[in-house]
Amino acid sequence: MTFRQFAYRNVVRNSRIYGAFFMASFFSVAVFFIYSMLMFHPDIERGILGEMSLIGMVGAEIVLVLFTLFFLYYSMSAFLEARSHEFAILLHLGMEKRQMNKLVFLETMIIGTGSIIVGIVFGFSFSKFFFMIVREILHLEDLPLYISWEPFLLTIGVFTSAFFVISFISVYFTRERKLRDLIKGSDYLNSLTTYSKIRAFYGISLIVTTYILAFVVGHTSLIGLTLLIPFSATFGTYYFFSDSVPCFLDLARGKRKYHWQRYRLLSLAEQTHIMMDNVKMFFVVTMVSTLAFLSVGVLATMSSYTTQYDRLNPLGLVYKGDVDNPYEREHINSLRLQLEEKGLSYQLSRFIVVKQTSSFTRNEVEVFRESDMNVLLSSYSYPLLNLEAGEAVFIPYSEDSLKKLKDRVVHTVLEENNIPLTIDSVYPKIVFPGSIVSVNSIVISDEDFAKLIHPISDQDIIQPSYHLFTFVIPQWMETKDIGKDIDHLESNLYFIKKDKFSPFYFENAGLNYSYILATYSLFTLVGVLVATVFLLAAGSFIYFKLHTSLEREKRKFDVLKRMGLTDTELKKLVNRHLFPQFFLPWGVAMMHSAFAFLMVQGILRDIANISIVKEVFFAFGFFVLIQVVYFYLIRWRYISHIRS
Amino acid sequence: MPILQIKDVTKVYEGKVTHRALNQLSFDVEEGEFLAVMGPSGSGKTTLLNIISTIDEPTSGEIILDGMNPHKLNATELAYFRRRQLGFVFQDFNLLHMLTVEENIVLPLTLDQQPLEVMEERLASIVEKLDLTSFLHKRPNEISGGQAQRTAIGRALIHNPSLILADEPTGNLDSNSSRDVLELLTKVNQDKQTTIVMVTHDPIAASYCDRVLFIKDGEFFNEIYRDDRRQMFFQRILNVLSLLGGGQVGDLSTIRLP
């Protein structure tokens, strides 16, 4: 038997031990490969998604590689730890340290090569499926499968060097221990760290501070405080696991009445021990899961924003200008010409909007004419308005305003022209995007509108009245290139001439949508990748940790069984053993992300006025489901190991 | 009335190599007796102990403990039986390292859901008897081997079991601690009339018992009872052991003619 054969047989016959490690690396390779396939896709390179997406994907791949390195290193050292007894025998028989390093190196490379091959085969066979999903998410027409050497070469290159590096690092960084201790087996617990009450207090208070900060930022505009949040969250979480939790457990153990009961005696002691032993792991898992939750939450938000975009922006093009806007005729003609050239059907409505002062609020109000409004409404084929003199209707500016204004009845007088009005309803649909219409907009009857002779009395108002042109375009997504010259002129006026008040304002929903879609695509591609790998890793950390302590646990349960532990009690004890390990870091991560989303929701309410509660709730529910399934899977394996 | 009866117990381990660990072994243990089981390595001592402690089943034959055959119980009843009727002392103590000494001792009672008052009362009496006060709140890795074994004895006694099974209790201890532990076991045996079955290699440990049973290759070999002087008893144990050694030691050696 040569040395290489020995290494080979070690791996093949230790398949149970190495199975998990193999699975972890194989999965990383597969994910990496699929993403490389997407990254090198000829269509993507030609820029369907724009430069940003490509840069983002490269960034994500780098993050993925770094994380995979860390993850593989962690699992590798866990397995070396689990096999320390075996190594001790080899060293005892006279193996040199150099030979042992070679052995570990060979074994890692065997597993590495195996997982690279299987990972690539698996990745390649699933890439078409993945492309189909990406195509659906990004609304692409076609994303065909292709064959090119680049993704293969990249994956093989990256992972071969990764395994190479890891096998060296993990050997050199394993704790140097005495042979005698190694042979005795990894009997640990020689370094029981203690907690400090002050740090325990810091842990809790930092986390509470973080939450309060998040809440404050969400409800006020103190965005600067956001910078503090990651720091306080990180330190708070660390202290929480290193000191606060042990402190609580110790307090609980102090109460005999509570503590000396059935399984509590054992499980509390065990939890204390697990906590103190694995502070770093719990911390990493929590932070990693928080990141994963956040990226998925952001994705959900983006997707809700894109699907709601259509409804919130019913108009294809909007052109708003002063009454004496010199460009008006030219621009509107050019827009119509461009639309006709493209063969897009449209319905144009023009408005004259007059500002008046309302006696009810003492504020300005934008007044629309009923017949102008009805032209727009008929192009939407919405119900038309029919107003008598003295009647008026609110124009909703957002979903929220629909509800708010619904039952509001206001008696007011337009002061400049002394026109009494009763505003008793809100138009039930959103007709203008929020950016166009002011929060105080009403429609009045043509008779009343004709009486508006005197302009608004407040001299500081810049636009006492304005012209509004709206284009309703059924194929609004295709208007991306229309009116580029106007956009250009507008920004020129703003930036070059420093003209603060451009005589017109132009908005193109199709163009805006294309920007949003590109950002969304970027987040999807990056977020899905990061979330998958992080979640996988977070679960695996726990599994590997359990795996290394398996022998010890088995011995413990043997003693307990001898002392008369029934099978059901054993299962309950295992539950109590596994449950906190699985759900405590996830619970904390979920709390963190919940508060993060509370903050994001608060900020979004100001900017985009969309609700992400439903999306986030679904995403979280999905995670809980995955975690529960994972818990039962591990529990099943764990119990069967312990019973054997 | 014997508290434990072993009747024609045979244990065969099936597997790639079939191995007969016990062969038609029979003996009785009287209530309040302190019995040592001796035999060379591989003679089936541990198998015997495992069968008595019901974590292993005999291939044939039966065991009657306190008037009933525990191997006829189902798994849960068996666990309850072990929890209430048996106490264990192991060679490597098998204390749970994350519990303190005190918690290790009360563990059997917490599993059995005893009220707190009962636990504290029993703990107090055990602690006093075994002199554990000085290290009650330490962890198993902070105390000496002798202290650990005393803790383990405390754990085996706290639920007043009808039978204590000890597997090489002095195997990991120095001579002073061994003496302490053995004197303790003797005291427990005499004071509370607790029946103890101890498996051991050590003739000194065996000399503390009322009776020593020798087994060899899974079969009954010999038994001797204690008389007044421990020294004499020890000598007799040594004699039997030398016989047990395979017939060479103590026999006349063959004469070689020049």
Give the helix/strand layout.
The complex is a heterodimer of chains A (644) and B (258).
Chain A: H1 3-13, H2 15-39, H3 42-45, H4 50-82, H5 84-92, H6 97-138, H7 149-173, H8 179-184, H9 197-219, H10 228-254, H11 256-259, H12 264-277, H13 279-312, E1 317-322, H14 328-342, E2 347-357, E3 364-369, H15 370-380, E4 391-394, H16 399-406, E5 410-414, E6 419-426, E7 441-444, H17 446-450, E8 465-472, H18 484-495, E9 504-508, H19 509-548, H20 550-562, H21 567-607, H22 613-643
Parallel strand pairs in A: 3-7, 4-6
Antiparallel strand pairs in A: 1-8, 1-9, 2-3, 2-8, 4-7, 5-6
Helix pairs in contact in A: 1-6, 2-4, 2-6, 2-7, 2-19, 4-7, 4-19, 6-7, 9-10, 9-21, 10-12, 10-13, 12-21, 13-19, 13-21, 13-22, 20-22, 21-22
Chain B: E1 2-13, E2 19-30, E3 34-38, H1 45-52, E4 60-65, H2 75-85, E5 86-89, H3 101-111, H4 116-130, H5 145-157, E6 163-167, H6 175-192, E7 195-200, H7 203-206, E8 211-216, E9 219-225, H8 230-244
Parallel strand pairs in B: 3-7, 3-8, 5-6, 6-7
Antiparallel strand pairs in B: 1-2, 1-4, 8-9
Helix pairs in contact in B: 3-5, 5-6
